[in-house]
Amino acid sequence: MMKKLSPFLLIPVAAMIGAGGAVAVRISADGSQPESQESEAGAEEPKESEKDSSVVHRNAKQKKGDHGSNSKHSKSSAALESDAEPSTYLKFSRQFVAPIVKAGHPVAMMILDINLELDSSDADSAYAEEPKLRDAVLKVLLKQASEGKLQEMFQNPEFLEETRAKILDESRAILGDGVKSVLIMDVGYQQL
Questions:
Q1: Could you tell me if 137 and 96 are in contact, meaning their C-beta atoms sit under 8 angstroms apart?
Q2: Which fold has domain 87-191?
Q3: Where are the domains of the chain?
Q4: Using one digit for the tens of pLDDT, what is the confidence trace for 143-161?
C-alpha cells in the first residue's frame, strides 16, 4: 500500500524543495534580497554611507564590463540588439501528420511539430493565413514522403535541412520575407 502512495507523497516534497530553490534564485546578483523579502525580514533602511558605496560598486561593475569597448572589432550589446529586429513565433494549432507509403500502402506515420520564426510585425497576418500555411507545409511533407526523404530524416540530416528549406520557401511565398526560419520542434514516427 505504501509503495502505491509514495509517488503521491514525493511530488509535494519535491515541489517544496523546488520552491525553496526558486526563492534562493530570486536573490539578486549584488547579494540584496528583493524588496518584499527585505520588508518581511525586518531589514532596516541602509545608512547614507552604505547607499553610496553600493552605487559605486555597481558603477565599477558596469565600467569593468566596458573593457575593450573602444575596439573597432567589438559592438556593444545595445548596438547588436538594435540591429536585430525582434522575432515572434507562429505555433500551428495542430501538429502535422504525414503518411509514409511503400508499394501503395501506408506503413508508418510521421508526426511533426513545426513553428515559424517571423518578424514581430508579421505575426497578426501570419495567424490569419494559417490555413494556407498548413496547406503549403503539408504539401511539402507529402512530396518529401513520396520521394522517400521524409522517413530518412533520422539518418540523413541533409533531408531534414532540405525539408526545412522547402517549408521556408513555401511560407515566404505566402507571407513574404518576414518569415525568418522554420523550427522543427518535434518529430514522431509510428509504425502501422
A1: yes
A2: Tetrahydropterin Synthase; Chain A (3.30.479)
A3: 2-67, 87-191
A4: 998 888 888 887 888 999 9
